[in-house]
Specification:
alpha/beta; 7-stranded mixed sheet; globular; binds flavin-adenine dinucleotide; 5-stranded parallel sheet
Length: 546
């Protein structure tokens, strides 16, 4: 057999995993277990991804922790104790670090290493990675666990460089505590991170100004300490609960009402909405089976929440400004917070409407709005979200067959087959990529489903002596059409001004990116594709030994 040329300056592995968040950690565990030599390259100084970078006060998950956790080890899920219904960032980060230690994964994870380039070497059928540490890695398989909410979006703002105070983005929060005591603080944005952060900052700040362009709906999280009887029941029934989550619409155990809002009387409808409000968080989105399909049903839920806002916020004008109009509830990521609306009753909190008078510029001492009104600030916090779903992949801009860069392949919006692979990019797997349920699901479920699929695929390739797998352009086109078609049957298609569509990033194509067909249906589809011999993929046999 022909000997493969090996360059001493290059580090060789079967698989390179890019990123060491929940996805990267899971991939390292699984691939190593099946004897694949693997190295994860992580830009951050620690493992954890989202939970390493988003250290802002109040950061916590909005899927119950007993659900938002790995299922791959029964010992792990039995021995870990979550202290709250929805764990806060420090606890989730402790959990991820525990997983890395418990399964001895750190030896295969290289921190402080950003992948700057990835290129498919067609002759050797291997991926070549360059990093900001000056190293080069070569691998048969590229597993992209780069995260869908990992590229913080700081809007380009005139004058930011002149600001004499401190400024931060929630998604890139410093490790040391940010001192807000007695200070004038401005928060730009009123999405998920903002609604978690605002009540806590308000408690300590001298004055807090919330600059709001578009209000969103915020549910009370109804967070509390973990109830021992709940934990006991989950631990006794974990296999069934995980199975339920994997087959469900959204990858978790939240119970859905299977009735249409129209099948219920107005009183029954109201009672169900009140029940969902008391359950808290994202439960509202499972109030009726057609809440995201029927405008009238959606409006009933939206008006219910507006009424809650009106009855909570004392100042009438502030309440009206906080109540979303012309926005179907749930079509922008629903927020889940604690005392969010109550916070606007505090003397030291002001809501500033920047829809009417947009922010003109940052000055040395604060923010100036169109028309000239200026707000003096010591600290400016950007809760302005992420370049979602495609940001991290586009930044690396992998180069596939025939020198095709990913940004070019995705110029009109991301195209994938099954949300897992891209035509022209052989042996590259994207975890929770566009075209998969991703941000529409309990992400840990989706991550585990993808890692299982990728591991099975690599196993199949090894047993069959295959060197490359790549979707056909036709399969990719059909899948991308299917993703668009699934969204077009919902109210998402009518609410294009959201990060689900990429609308928060200037110049980004406005295309609906996640797959709304349901986690369970999706899992069945991707499993069938694998079981039927990878229909829609081109499989090639080895040209060179690897
Ligand atoms: C504040 C917040 C709360 C959330 N809450 C929930 C929730 O309750 N439920 C839920 O399901 N989801 C939630 N999410 C989504 C969350 O992102 C996922 O649940 C999950 O953590 C994603 O894991 P991941 O490993 O795929 O990506 P990430 O956790 O984003 O990890 C990706 C890693 O890749 C690294 N990386 C990226 N590019 C490179 C590169 N070029 N080179 C090297 N490393 C790179 C990044 O540094 C990062 O550490 C939340 C997100 C945020 C921001």
């Amino acid at each position: 057999m022909q000997e493969e040329f090996r360059d001493d300056a290059v580090q060789y592995f079967d698989a390179i995993v890019v990123g060491a968040g929940l996805a990267g950690i899971c991939a390292v565990y699984k691939l190593r277990e099946m004897g694949v030599s693997v190295r994860a390259l992580e830009a951050g100084g620690g493992v954890g991804g989202t939970w390493y970078h988003n250290r802002y006060p109040g950061a916590r998950c909005d899927i119950e922790s007993l659900d938002y956790s790995y299922s791959f080890s029964n010992e792990l899920q039995q021995e870990w104790h979550w202290s709250e219904r929805y764990a806060g960032q420090p606890e989730i980060l402790r959990y991820i670090n525990h997983v890395a230690d418990r399964f001895d994964l750190r030896k295969d994870i290289q921190l402080n290493t950003r992948v700057t380039q990835a290129r498919f070497d067609e002759t050797r059928e291997r991926w070549v990675f360059s990093t900001d540490t000056g190293e080069t890695f070569s691998a048969k398989y590229a597993v992209m666990a780069t995260g869908v909410l990992s590229v913080a979006q700081v809007p380009s703002m005139k004058g930011l460089e002149d600001f004499k105070g401190e400024w931060f983005h929630t998604g890139d929060w410093p490790r040391q505590e940010v001192q807000v005591q007695g200070k004038r603080v401005g928060v730009i944005g009123t999405g998920s991170s903002a609604t978690q952060l605002i009540p806590l900052v308000a408690k300590n700040a001298g004055h807090l100004y919330v600059f709001q362009r578009t209000p969103n709906y915020t549910m009370p999280a109804q967070n509390h300490s973990m109830k021992p009887e709940v934990e006991k029941e989950w631990k006794a029934n974990y296999p069934e609960r995980r199975k339920f989550a994997w087959a469900s619409g959204f990858g978790h155990n939240q119970v859905s009402n299977h009735l249409s809002g129209k099948e219920m009387s107005p009183d029954e409808r109201l009672a169900e909405l009140e029940n969902r409000w008391q359950l808290g968080g994202l439960y509202m989105m499972r109030a009726f089976k057609d809440i995201l399909i029927d405008p009238e049903v959606n409006e009933a839920a939206a008006e219910f929440v507006r009424d809650k806002i009106r009855s909570t916020v004392h100042d009438k004008a502030t309440a009206e400004a906080l109540a979303p109009r012309n926005l179907y509830i749930g079509t922008k990521r629903l927020c889940s917070g604690t005392n969010y609306y109550e916070t606007f009753n505090r003397e030291n909190v002001s809501l500033v409407n920047v829809q009417e008078k947009p922010i003109d510029c940052v000055t040395a001492h604060g923010l100036r709005l169109a028309g000239g009104k200026e707000y003096e600030l010591d600290i400016l916090i950007f809760a302005t979200g992420f370049d979602a779903m495609t940001g991290a992949m586009n930044k690396i801009n992998p180069v596939g067959r025939n020198g095709l860069p990913l940004r070019q392949a995705w110029a009109a919006g991301p195209r994938t087959y099954l949300g897992l692979c891209v035509a022209g990019f052989p042996n590259m797997f994207v975890i929770t990529g566009p075209g998969s349920p991703s941000v529409f699901s309990n992400m840990v479920t989706s991550i585990e489903q993808h890692v299982e699929w990728i591991a099975n695929c690599i196993s199949h390739m090894r047993s069959q002596g295959l060197s490359a797998i790549e979707p056909t352009a036709q399969a990719q086109d059909e899948w991308t059409d299917h993703v668009t078609d699934a969204a077009s049957k919902t109210l998402y298609a009518q609410s294009r001004n959201s990060w689900f569509h990429g609308a928060n990033i200037p110049g980004k194509p406005v295309v609906f990116m996640p797959y709304v067909g349901g986690v369970g249906n999706y899992y069945r589809k991707i499993t069938q594709v694998a079981e039927s011999g990878y229909v829609g993929f081109n499989l090639s046999t080895a040209r060179m030994p690897s």
